[in-house]
Design brief:
- With 328 residues, this protein is an alpha/beta fold.
- The protein has one domain: Aldolase class I (TIM Barrel).
- Helices cover 40% and strands 14% of the residues.
- An eight-stranded parallel beta barrel has the order 1-2-3-4-5-6-7-8, surrounded by nine helices.
- The longest helix has 15 residues.
- The C terminus is likely disordered.
- It binds coenzyme A and zinc ion.
- The site of zinc ion has 8 residues, from loops.
- Zinc ion (ZN) binds next to loops.
């Protein structure tokens, strides 16, 4: 039994909601966040302090931050793209600022409307403004490839990470913004990133766009990573990254890690109950699977005739044809 602790950051109300076409009312967001706060998360990314024109869904960021219940032990973080966002985040008493830029020049231009160097300069000013009063994390979009440029060299990702590490940030999140990462690449990335940034909190952020999400979580966790982002129901995606779709489903990832014996800190049953509300909240089916299937510990009753035979003690367990021939 491996009881190592996993620290999970729920991003459903930020990454999850930002791509949804219909505005989700503020009351619904606050109620969902309050329910999530009781599930055992280490961190919840509540919202974004970005331009309301860029992401109209999150135009109620101040109100949401002002109304949520803050549960001790849960960090409430927010996404910040520039100085204006940082000022708003500090005003809202965020526990952490999650600064964002892309390691792909093209995606940074599409998403943040500026070249990477300009983003870096703005974010460096933010780190200096915060001056250690609030922890700072940096999310590097497109760390495993860009949907417009293609490959982003691993060294390039590490180089941006190093520039932020030199500013004294607490953590780095390597984001697979459009689900381009594959497990061998992830293994290499987490090995090098942990060597290069031994003092930083390293988080992995995967999207399941090509069905590799949980395989990438597995590769990361086997490589020593203990921090993940995920989105309840598997919602999510960047509206400014062509072809983006849902994050890994938090409940599917946490169910897997829990089944493997990791200490997720989560109440999985409570989490699944909240996950089952997601289709009602967004008005459509969601990709998460465990909320539909139930946990692996939730068994089904056998068919009536099998139960009757079992009760009558009439069933001799015949050896299966595979026995004696090894696994098939
Ligand atoms: N919060 C609120 N408003 C902001 C803002 C912020 N953090 N940053 C800029 N604005 C406002 C400005 O006040 C200005 O408003 P006005 O048109 O009413 O005068 C307007 O946005 C444009 O400002 P400008 O500095 O020219 O920004 P821009 O148009 O170049 O946009 C960003 C830059 C970063 C603000 C914008 O691209 C953005 O918010 N992107 C985030 C996208 C995102 O969240 N993607 C998904 C997550 S990865
Ligand atoms: Zn994302």
């Amino acid at each position: 039994m491996n009881a190592e602790r996993i620290f999970f950051n729920e991003v459903a109300t930020r990454d999850g909601f930002q791509i949804e076409p219909l505005f989700i009312p503020t009351d619904t967001k606050v109620a969902l966040l309050d329910a999530l706060s009781d599930c055992g998360y280490a961190k919840i990314e509540v919202t974004s302090f970005v331009s309301p024109k860029a992401i109209p869904m999150l135009r109620d960021a101040e109100e949401v931050m002002g109304r949520i219940r803050r549960v001790p032990g849960v960090e409430y973080t927010v996404l910040v793209p520039n100085m204006r966002g940082a000022e708003r985040a500090l005003e809202s008493r965020a526990d952490e600022l999650n600064l964002v830029m892309s390691v792909s020049e093209t995606h940074n231009l599409a998403n943040l409307r500026m070249p990477r160097e300009k983003s870096f300069a703005a974010l460096a000013d933010v780190v200096r403004l915060v001056n250690g009063r609030t922890p700072v994390n940096v999310s590097l979009s497109c760390s495993f490839g860009c949907p417009m440029e293609g490959d982003v060299p691993l060294e390039e990702v590490l180089r941006w990470g190093e520039r932020f590490a030199a500013l004294g940030v607490r953590g780095l999140t390597l984001c697979d913004t459009t689900g381009m990462a594959q497990p061998a690449q992830v293994t290499r990335m987490v090995e090098l990133a942990q060597q290069r940034f031994p003092a930083l909190q390293l988080t992995l952020h995967f999207h399941n766009t090509r069905g590799m999400g949980l395989a990438n979580v597995l590769a990361s966790v086997q490589g020593g990573i203990r921090r993940f982002d995920g989105s309840l129901g598997g919602l999510g995606g960047c509206p400014y990254a062509p072809g983006a779709s849902g994050n890994i489903s938090s409940e599917d990832a946490l169910h897997m890690l829990d089944a493997m014996g990791y200490d997720t800190g989560m109440d999985i049953d409570k989490l699944l109950a909240v996950a089952r509300q997601m289709p009602g909240i967004v008005g459509h089916e969601v990709p998460g699977q465990v909320a539909k299937a139930g946990r692996i510990t939730e068994l089904h009753a056998p068919p009536a005739e099998v139960s009757a035979l079992l009760q009558a003690g009439a069933l001799e367990l015949a050896p299966s044809p595979a026995q004696g021939r090894g696994l098939v």
